Amino acid sequence: MFNPQLVLHEKEYEAIKLICDRLFRESNSKIVFIVDKNGQLIAVSGDVSRMDTTSLASLTAGNVAATGGLAKILGEKEFSVLFHEGENDSVHISLIGARMILVVIFDKRTNQGLVRLKVKKSTEELIRIFDAIFSKTEKEKDSQGAIDITEGDIDKLFGDF
To answer: Which of the residues 24, 71, 124, 146 could staple to 32 if both were Cys, CB 3.0 to 4.6 A apart?
Structure first.
């Protein structure tokens, strides 16, 4: 399976960030972030000044991986939505395609139903963006594949020794 690196240009990042910002506002959540399945933080909306975002991203990716193992044991391909409810805060985790994870952290100012509704719309938009990014990355890799070097090119490069 080809596993391209994420190459994110400013225009693509801005589109992703716009969706995160809108989801943050419309769901009345505390934090919205996107992380890849390797634990790399891609985008964030909300106040994370007092939060260890590196650990949060890593633990989220680990949680998704562990739940993926559980899904396989149960005969499922994967669980595309995870939900954790705490005394004060809750976490809604959704898979975005095969490689990205959308996380919404919220408290009692909103409810799980509203978060799920807003996440569904945002996920559809994010899937389109990430599919386009990975498709473009694959095409760029394919175009850089084989290089034809002629004998004349070698002569020009090394000259006469």
So the answer is: 24
pLDDT tens for residues 64-100?
999 999 999 999 999 999 999 999 999 999 999 888 9
Structural contact between residues 105 and 94, judged by C-beta atoms closer than 8 angstroms: no
CA dihedral 78, 79, 84, 85 (to 10 degrees): -160
Give the burial class of 154: count Cβ atoms within 10 A of its Cβ; 0-12 exposed, 13-18 middle, 19 or more buried: exposed
Q: What is the pLDDT, as a whole number, of residue 1?
A: 38
Closest to 29 (Cα-Cα) out of 122, 115, 136? 115
The tokens for 51 are 């939060």
Write out pLDDT tens, residues 6-30. 677 889 999 999 999 999 999 999 9
**Would you call 103 helix, strand, or coil by DSSP?**
strand
Domains of the chain: 10-144 (3.30.450.30)
